[in-house]
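Colleagues,

Please find the record for the two-part complex below.
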Amino acid sequence: MTNKKLLLGAEAIALAAIDAGISGVYAYPGTPSTEITEYIQRSKIAKQNGVRSKWSSNEKTAYEAALGMSYAGKRSLVCMKHVGLNVAADAFMNSAITGVNGGLVVVVADDPSMHSSQNEQDTRAYGRFAYLPVIEPSNQQETYDAVRYAFDLSELVKLPVLLRITTRLSHSRAAVLQQVAKAQNALNPSTEKKNWILLPSNARVNYAGLLGKQQQLTDISEASPLNKVVEGSGPKAVIAFGIAYNYVMEVKQAEKLDIPVLKISQYPLPEKKLKAFVEKYDDVLIAEEGYPIYEELLKGFFGNAKFRGRLDGALPRMGELSPDALAKALGVPMPELKAIPAVVANRPPMLCQGCGHGDLFVAMNRVFESYPAKHVFSDIGCYTLGALPPYDAISTCVDMGASITMAKGASDAGLHPAVAVIGDSTFTHSGITGLIDAVNDGTSVTIIISDNATVAMTGGQESSGDGNLYDICKGVGVDEAHIRVIEPLKKNMEKNMAVLKEEFEYRGVSVVIAQRECVQVMLKNKKQRNKTAAAKAAV
Amino acid sequence: MNKNIIIAGVGGQGILTIAAVIDLAAMNNGLHVKQAEVHGMSQRGGAVESHLRISDAEIFSDLIPRGKADLILAIEPMESLRYLPFLSKDGVIVTATEAFKNIANYPEEDSIRAEIEKSARHVFVDAEALARSVGNPKSFNVVMLGAAAPYIGIGAEQLEKAIAQLFAAKGEEIVEMNLLAFRKGLAN
């Protein structure tokens, strides 16, 4: 027996952050980042130490709160999925200019291959964009250790540190050995006003300071234990970034290849180490989990032919890497594989039995039968599955909150009815401001808030507008006569269709709140109630 | 010692419980473990799988390379076929016989059975009947773990110990019921 814990990569980050003495974590749920915050929310030690961990309304509010905690001198963690950083980008980019007081680590979980996402953008590009240090660990233990390292680095260089992981690391378990926990920082608010007031006169000075730190960051990367060479004999070599290192080493181990490998897990690139490595070999495979950012850079505009990778087809141009992709790129012959028999049918995800979104879509589809065409602007959540049969209910899904604003734009162009379907949590994440635009403009739109009182797709986290949706809509100026509440159940079908039809026909802003508890949360709550009852009965 | 196992099923069928037992048993035996699982969208009734690797040497990749899985442990027969490219030449399929039909175009069950029979060494398990015989249909997945136990590379007694550990918090009754389910599967 060992005292090691078997943890997901996401959980390793959470445990490491608690042990690194954070005073708070800020996040909005998003696959594959959700489990980080959930682990901290469940942790008894975190509770004991008063680590705040409630969900934020969106990634931007989360980021800014984390920055505020840093201003106050304490360590804070902020977590999101890759597209969440787009939402928080304003705060993120400018936090590079303010710098930090207490350590601030920004964890962004990318989703190459788009397992649960609408794109596969590579967060390392944001790291370069902001001139911030980026850490990209390869395995669970390294992830745990890297979080502690990142907090120390953040306080040393007085900058936020970006920690980038991908789905495979976030959602894979391995044994992790814990370090001794560090106490939280004392409250010590910054008094360096010029750092924090980004008036142009201050911002110019701070930006020059950020540029001035780049050499120091490179020097730190140069000495970092995260960047290392695994010796081998040439002339072929591999530069492996982050988790790509695992796949290269898998092939190296299985095939007993003696290829030299340079592992990069900290940016900016360690220039000297890299140069010394590259000069020795004629054929260098660049393995990046994500965009070929550094391949492009190393290859240069005129294309140095010794670098191979995603750009020349040695590795697939898109999608996550795998041991098979690396084996192929290293010239290892593929064994003969069994094929998937033709009889195997696809089994896509679908709405649960007894899900309120389903009954809403049926009612909505039936109302649309009386119109020449159906255009429904939708959004991100379980209800996006309304795109699939048997519902075929929605026309768009772009980014958080886009349903309302796209419906508005289409209405402005003359489309009627202009209908949006958005979840309760997506509405409070990024929908309210769009609704204000529609109200101010008197736009003819019908916003259906499919309210299951939870963030369902990511596993049933609490929804920040729970119980307040009606008042929010009223408060931003929607006419109360056109805020309708329905319960999407089969037995209410005719009644609900009548409400939808009336509001589709209304020329102005209308909101239909379709309220029915998420069936998964209902089951979970029932189980919890039974448990509590059993515990009480036992006493 | 080096075993690559793919556990396959449909979101919500409890494949992660099977993985958790094997993980724990492997850790107890001082083995290295890596176990990749599916979270997010596919959990909503979609096809899900877990790549589980145990070894006495360091494990690098979280994913099993194609053609290198020793075992496909499937909680649903069609799902056992979805991951065939991962199965090694001599690999084994251990699958439940009960089809989970949540799609309109679910194929003929006989054709699935025929494909499994010709694809690899295989063990069919009437897991539902066995689970019912211990008085809890929910122990379906533990029955399957029992049936696959001879191919996991860890002794059955070690797996039983891990089951006892994992379910300890839920009380002795639950532990006993799961041990019974495991043994039913093992005797299959």
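Chain A has three domains: 5-212, 228-329, 356-522.

Comments are welcome before we finalize the supplementary table.
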